[in-house]
C-alpha cells in the first residue's frame, strides 16, 4: 500500500515547487436563473435571473489548481483589453496568483464560456446551454514576442512547465520551441493537455489525454484494458514522451510509461459525479506537480486520480486545495502499491 504518511509527504513537497503554466486563459461565466414558465414566443423555458459569477477557466484554472495545492504558480498567457480580461486578472490577484506573465492586448478578445444554469435556491442547478465567445485563433506578432521573452525569463526558475491548450492559438510553434529550450537548459519537465491537437507537443515529458481523444488520435476503440494499453503505447511513441496518463471517466485512469508497465487505476470515490467541468485541469496540475516534487509516476498518477475524484463532486469550475487532497487521501485514497 501507499502509506498515508508517504502520500502526505508527497503532497507536502508541493510547497517547494514552481510551475509555469503556459496556455489559453479563459473566463468561465455562470448565469443562474430560476425556472419561471414556458415562453409564448417559442417552446423554450424562461428563467428569472438570480445571479452571475465568473471563475478562472482553462489555463487560469490549471494555475488556480497549482496555487491551491500549495505550490508557486506563474501563468503565462494573453488576455484581451476587455471586461472579461479585467475579471480574469482580478480573480487571479484576489487568490494570490501572480500576473507578471500575463499579456494584455487589444488585438484579440478574452475567451469566455458562458453556462446558463437553471434551478432554485435549494434545488440542484442544471446546465441548460453553453455559449462560447472565442477569439480568432491567431496570436499577433507583438504578443507572441512578449510571451517568448516571458517564458525565457520566468521559466528559468520553474521546476515544471505545464502547457494548457484549448485551441485558441496561444501555443504557437515559436512559443513551444522556447518552452522546450527552457526545459532543456534548466532540467525541468514539460507536460501537455491539448483538446484538439496533442501531436503538436512531441517531446514533452508527459501528456494527459482523455479516452475519446486517444481513440480519435489512433483510430481505434479502447474497449478493454489490452486495447487501451495498445493505443496508449502507440500514442506514447508518436509523442516521444515518457508518460501518458489517460483519463477513462468511470473506468478510472491508465498510466503508460515508455520504459515501464501500464498501470490501471480504479476511479476514486463514487461514479455518481456532480460536474466534470475543469477536471482535466485538475488532473494535469496534480500530476505535473507530483512529478516535479519527486513522486514516482504511479504515485503521481494516483494523486491526480484522487484529486479528480474530489473535484468532480463540486459544481462548476473549481480547484482542489491541498487540505482537501490530504483529507481524501487520509479517508480512502491509499491503493495497493504496484
Walk me through this protein's architecture.
The structure is a single chain. Strand 2 and strand 3 (45-58) form a beta hairpin. 47% of the residues are buried. The protein contains ten helices and 13 strands. The chain has a single domain (4-332), classed as Ribokinase (UDP-N-acetylmuramoyl-L-alanine:D-glutamate ligase). With 338 residues, the protein is of the alpha/beta class. Helix 9 packs across helix 10 (322-332). The chain has helices at residues 4-12, 59-68, 83-95, 141-154, 173-186, 211-218, 225-239, 279-292, 297-311, 322-332, and strands at 18-23, 25-38, 45-58, 72-80, 102-105, 112-118, 126-133, 160-165, 189-194, 206-207, 243-247, 253-257, 262-265. The strands form two sheets. The chain has a nine-stranded mixed β-sheet with strand order 5-4-1-8-9-10-11-12-13, with helices on both faces. Strands 3-2-6-7 form a four-stranded mixed β-sheet.
| Low-pLDDT residue spans | none
Assign the CATH topology. Answer: UDP-N-acetylmuramoyl-L-alanine:D-glutamate ligase
**Terminal-residue CA separation:** 8 Å
* SSE sequence, one letter per element: HEEEHEHEEEHEHEEHHEEEHHH
- CATH-wise, what's the superfamily? Ribokinase
**Helical stretch count?**
10
Mean pLDDT: 92
By CATH reckoning, the class would read: Alpha Beta
Taken from the alpha-carbon principal axes, the silhouette is globular
- What proportion of the residues form beta strands (DSSP E)? 25-35%
Strand segment tally? 13
Strand order of the largest sheet: 5-4-1-8-9-10-11-12-13
Radius of gyration: 20 Å
| Share in helix | 25-40%
The tally of domains stands at 1
Structural class: alpha/beta
Largest sheet: 9 strands, mixed
CATH architecture: 3-Layer(aba) Sandwich
Amino acid at each position: 500500500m501507499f502509506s498515508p504518511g508517504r502520500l502526505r509527504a508527497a503532497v507536502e513537497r508541493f510547497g517547494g515547487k514552481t510551475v509555469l503554466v503556459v496556455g489559453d486563459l479563459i473566463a468561465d461565466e455562470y448565469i443562474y436563473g430560476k425556472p419561471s414558465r414556458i415562453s409564448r414566443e417559442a417552446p423554450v423555458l424562461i428563467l428569472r435571473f438570480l445571479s452571475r459569477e465568473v471563475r478562472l477557466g482553462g489555463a487560469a484554472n490549471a494555475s488556480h489548481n497549482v496555487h491551491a495545492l500549495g505550490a508557486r504558480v506563474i501563468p503565462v498567457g494573453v488576455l484581451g483589453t476587455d471586461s472579461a480580461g479585467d475579471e480574469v486578472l482580478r480573480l487571479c490577484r484576489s487568490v494570490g496568483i501572480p500576473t507578471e506573465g500575463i499579456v494584455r492586448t487589444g488585438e484579440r478578445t478574452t475567451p469566455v464560456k458562458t453556462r446558463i444554469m437553471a434551478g432554485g435556491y435549494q434545488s440542484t442547478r442544471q446546465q441548460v446551454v453553453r455559449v462560447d465567445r472565442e477569439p480568432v485563433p491567431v496570436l499577433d506578432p507583438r504578443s507572441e514576442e512578449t510571451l517568448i521573452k516571458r517564458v525565457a525569463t520566468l521559466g528559468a526558475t520553474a521546476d515544471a512547465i505545464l502547457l494548457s491548450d484549448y485551441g485558441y492559438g496561444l501555443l504557437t510553434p515559436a512559443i513551444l520551441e522556447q518552452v522546450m529550450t527552457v526545459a532543456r537548459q534548466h532540467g525541468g519537465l514539460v507536460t501537455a493537455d491539448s483538446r484538439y491537437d496533442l501531436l503538436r507537443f512531441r517531446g514533452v515529458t508527459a501528456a494527459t489525454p482523455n479516452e475519446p481523444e486517444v481513440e480519435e488520435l489512433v483510430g481505434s476503440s479502447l474497449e478493454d484494458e489490452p486495447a487501451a494499453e495498445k493505443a496508449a503505447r502507440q500514442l506514447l511513441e508518436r509523442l516521444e514522451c515518457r508518460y501518458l496518463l489517460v483519463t477513462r471517466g468511470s473506468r478510472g485512469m491508465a498510466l503508460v510509461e515508455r520504459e515501464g508497465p501500464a498501470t490501471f487505476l480504479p476511479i476514486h470515490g463514487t461514479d455518481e459525479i456532480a460536474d466534470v467541468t475543469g477536471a482535466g485541469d485538475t488532473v494535469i496540475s496534480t500530476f505535473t506537480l507530483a512529478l516535479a516534487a519527486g513522486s514516482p509516476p504511479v504515485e503521481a498518477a494516483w494523486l491526480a486520480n484522487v484529486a479528480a475524484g474530489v473535484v468532480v463532486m463540486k459544481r462548476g469550475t473549481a480547484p482542489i486545495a491541498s487540505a482537501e487532497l490530504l483529507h481524501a487521501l487520509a479517508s480512502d485514497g491509499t491503493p495497493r502499491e504496484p
